Automatic annotation (TrEMBL):
Protein name: Trans-aconitate 2-methyltransferase
Record has Methyltransferase as a keyword: yes
CDD domains: AdoMet_MTases
Gene3D superfamilies documented for this protein: Vaccinia Virus protein VP39 (3.40.50.150)
Amino acid sequence: MDLLPDDKLERSAVVANCRMNRERDLLGTNGYGRELGLDPLDFLRERLGAGRPAAWLDLCCGTGRALIQAARQVHGEGLDVEIVGVDLVGMFDEPDPRLTCLSLIEASLTTWRPERSFDLVTSVHGLHYVGNKLGLIARACSWLVEDGLLVANLDLTNLKLGDGRPGGRKIVAEMRRAGLQYDRKRRLVACRGMRMVDLPFRYLGADDRAGPNYTGQSAVDSWYEAG
């Protein structure tokens, strides 16, 4: 099988044209709250209750619509919250310039690194289009503050091992051994608290011909070799 390295994958029509987060709202039937099982702003407000500022990083944020909605609330309530969204395509909605709490960044998550740590790191259906999914999860865990939270959608059917076997069961076992959590029913991976994650899998490349996953949208298979 011909697998794509991440630089070529990012030029794939499946990745560049993915519609999963293009028009997603913060709340509601198509919102972040429903997909992640938590209201990001409620989570951040609780952090502020401890008397410190808070920060939220959203990976594969699409147009940034949900983040702009959140930033309006942050601005309106005068909350000490920073919101950062990163997306490969950079087709962002135009935010009100008064929303100085918000940064929308066009960048490849293969190479991008933040300049600060975050209380909350999310990715709503973004990992479906990432090549090295496990690598990004591991890096994102290191971007948390000591008691922060990472939560992201992850479909195990898009994780493959080089010998042709499905990789989900073995990979979940190793993620749990590393201190991560996986909810099979909701297809969510989570990490509570900053940690350095070193999973025993070598990334081989990606296949953009995987077809639709449980979302009904075409996704990317990520192939690994067990160490």
